[in-house]
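Hi support team,

I've been running sequence recovery on a batch of backbones for a student project. Most finish fine, but this one hangs at about 90% for roughly twenty minutes before it completes. I'm not sure whether the input is malformed or the queue is just slow. I've pasted the structure tokens below so you can try to reproduce it. Let me know if you need the job ID as well.

Thanks,
M.K.
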């Protein structure tokens, strides 16, 4: 396989999580597992919306480390607070009170409908905690033995055994059998299938408000309303996975706030600590006692450094009115894209919520990602035909104009064949 076709495979593989890339950027043998299809770029420095590679080339970042660097790269306030904390204390076991964790949790409950928070280290771990809490609530508080979680096709909930089982995409399950029991997946919007799946064993229903990895599809409000009503009638827990949508990305603190619902449980991760590894599982008051002492734990979860980063992230978001700003910039980005591509048959649809935008194309877009990298614009895909844009939440209109101009240029080059 040539170097170039390696790169192309990496582009497609990055979209679907497959592909072999066991070479280092320099082409030497790697000591790493080849589980990531990596682009041949080494990013070494970042500031705001910009990144630089080891060769000094500059990139405009419209992927934010997959919705993680939400305040831009190296945000000053977060960096200053984390540096100060690093001089004081890095880690303390959760066997002790951690004041920074208390503050971070309190702040999260102030911007959402949640009353109790459990901190962990990633999105998958937050979703695991949500699944465990749902089971434990039914089994220990309600004493009804319920355990099953219903999820939806095309969803993505993580890569641990439980969360990949919950995920409604076959590709993440291949070769990992047997999968844990207690999950059933139904087609999104198929109310009859959903109702048929509900039984005496059902503990809850879990969904994303915007199916992000699945193609950037915001879920229809009427469906969410009906789903919430079913959960209430049948005493099922409504669990919302906000790992990608949480913390401002969609123009509200959490995407479910667009829908006027209050989930029993929801999760967040990715941008919650501006790039330090953190996740959170948030729930309503009546679920608090289900996680009694000793029932669930995480060594690193909410340690002083990470909690400090979460607090500084939340403070910055409040002070700078980030969710409101995202709503405005998201509308602007969508409008500019729609105007730019209105007569371009290669582009079928521009959709999304806030600064989580999908551009559905009529053919695979893996090569367009590579052309973007050549032209200094970073973005990702969401399935084979969808370009996914995830700029940081402080992106400016000038940066949006610049990114869209590059996109228009590379899509034109791709169509005319010059990009190949
Ligand atoms: N849930 C959603 C909606 C996600 O987008 C992701 C990651 O992309 C996850 C869960 C898993 O998060 P992590 O990779 O931090 O485990």
């Amino acid at each position: 396989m040539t170097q170039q076709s390696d790169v192309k495979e990496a582009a497609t593989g990055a979209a679907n999580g497959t592909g072999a890339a066991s070479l280092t950027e320099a082409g030497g043998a790697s000591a790493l597992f080849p589980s990531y299809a990596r682009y041949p770029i080494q990013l070494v420095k970042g500031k705001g919306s910009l990144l630089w590679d080891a060769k000094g080339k500059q990139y405009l970042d419209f992927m934010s480390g997959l919705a993680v660097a939400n305040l831009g790269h190296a945000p000053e306030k977060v960096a200053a607070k984390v540096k100060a904390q690093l001089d004081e204390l890095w880690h303390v076991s959760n066997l002790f009170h951690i004041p920074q964790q208390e503050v971070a949790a309190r702040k999260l409950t102030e911007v959402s409908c949640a009353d109790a928070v459990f901190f962990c280290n990633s999105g998958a771990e937050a979703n695991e905690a949500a699944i465990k809490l749902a089971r434990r609530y039914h089994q220990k508080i309600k004493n009804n033995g319920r355990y099953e979680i219903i999820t939806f096709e095309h969803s993505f909930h993580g890569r641990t055994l439980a969360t990949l089982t919950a995920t409604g995409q076959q590709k993440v399950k291949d070769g990992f059998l047997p999968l844990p029991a207690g999950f059933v997946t139904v087609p999104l919007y198929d109310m009859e299938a959903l109702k048929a799946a509900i039984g005496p064993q059902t503990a809850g229903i879990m969904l994303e408000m915007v199916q992000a990895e699945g193609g950037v599809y915001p879920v229809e409000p009427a469906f969410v309303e009906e789903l919430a009503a079913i959960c209430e009638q049948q005493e099922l827990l409504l669990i919302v996975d906000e790992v990608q949508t949480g913390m401002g990305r969609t123009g509200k603190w959490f995407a479910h706030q667009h829908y006027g619902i209050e989930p029993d449980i929801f999760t967040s991760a990715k941008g919650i600590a501006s790039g330090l590894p953190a996740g959170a599982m948030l729930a309503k008051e009546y679920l608090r006692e289900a996680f009694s002492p000793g029932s669930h734990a995480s060594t690193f979860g909410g340690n002083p450094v990470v909690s400090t980063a979460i607090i500084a992230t939340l403070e910055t978001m409040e002070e700078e009115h980030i969710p409101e700003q995202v709503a405005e910039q998201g509308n602007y980005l969508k409008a500019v894209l729609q105007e730019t591509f209105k007569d371009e048959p290669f582009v079928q649809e521009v959709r999304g919520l806030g600064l989580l935008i999908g551009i559905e194309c009529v053919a695979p877009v893996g090569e367009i990602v590579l052309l973007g990298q050549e032209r200094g614009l970073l973005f990702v895909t969401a399935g084979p035909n969808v370009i996914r844009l995830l700029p940081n939440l402080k992106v400016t209109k000038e940066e949006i104009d610049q990114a869209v101009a590059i996109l228009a240029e590379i899509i034109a080059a791709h169509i005319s064949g010059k990009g190949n």
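--
Follow-up from support: It reproduced on our side and the slowdown came from queue contention, not your input. The two ends are 17 Å apart (CA to CA). No action needed from you.
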